[in-house]
Fold this protein.
Amino acid sequence: MSDLPKIPRHVAIIMDGNGRWANQRGLPRLRGHEEGAESVRAVIRACREVGVHYLTLYAFSVENWVRPRMEIRGLMRLLRKFLQEREHELHENRVRLRVIGRVHDLPLPVQHGLSRVTKATASYDSGQLILALSYGGRAELAHAVRAIARDVEAGRLAPDAIDERTIGAHLYAPDIPDPDLLIRTSGEMRLSNFLLWQIAYTELYVTNVLWPDFREPEFAKAMEAYSHRHRRFGDTKDRDTIPEVKHAGR
Ligand code: FPP
């Protein structure tokens, strides 16, 4: 466990820069993704060591489907390899694997691997690893709105009863608390359609380091930066959580 005064409960990461890392070395882009998978491993371990309970990784966006077929195939292969090689660590450390996104878009062998490991780890409570796959924040909100509309149509929900909690309850993983810290590597200052609803009050940390170079020392810097942040959630004094606001979202 860390001796920092404040550790985020939930860290979300936009893992960017694999392609640039490879280009800088005259290597194929897939080599960058392979090194990126090593960073995934390192960061999962680092989260465990400092006591971060939830780690959400943006591994493949809905927009990533336009990439060259070869790259997509390579990324899917890496995912399957990750599941095969890392499953035992999830069991050893009692970490639950979850997936958010349009899982049905993924190739069947990837879907089967994910389904097997998410089921096998479903009862674990020492930590959660959430993979965002074929994920888009807008797609997630559209999914939530469709589900809410169905409840209204069926007479289970009155339109006037819809508030922020209703929307939160229809997201892909409604029980997971909002991220406390969002890390983006490779220096780009954008959200890229990631967790749009959930990051309303999340602290942002952007580093120029490319994802394949983001290992324990870089993660430690992000933890250190977070420990000095003052979070007020709209209040005038520091708070740990969003205040309970009456009639939120009405
Ligand atoms: C962004 O870099 C990264 C991705 C689109 C894929 C992330 C995948 C991994 C880190 C490896 C596999 C994942 C797991 C969970 C095992 P980019 O390719 O957009 O980089 P660029 O902007 O420099 O081109």
In short: Residues 15-20, 33, 36-37, 40, 57, 59, 64, 75, 78-79, 82, 131, 186, 211 surround farnesyl diphosphate (CB under 6 Å).
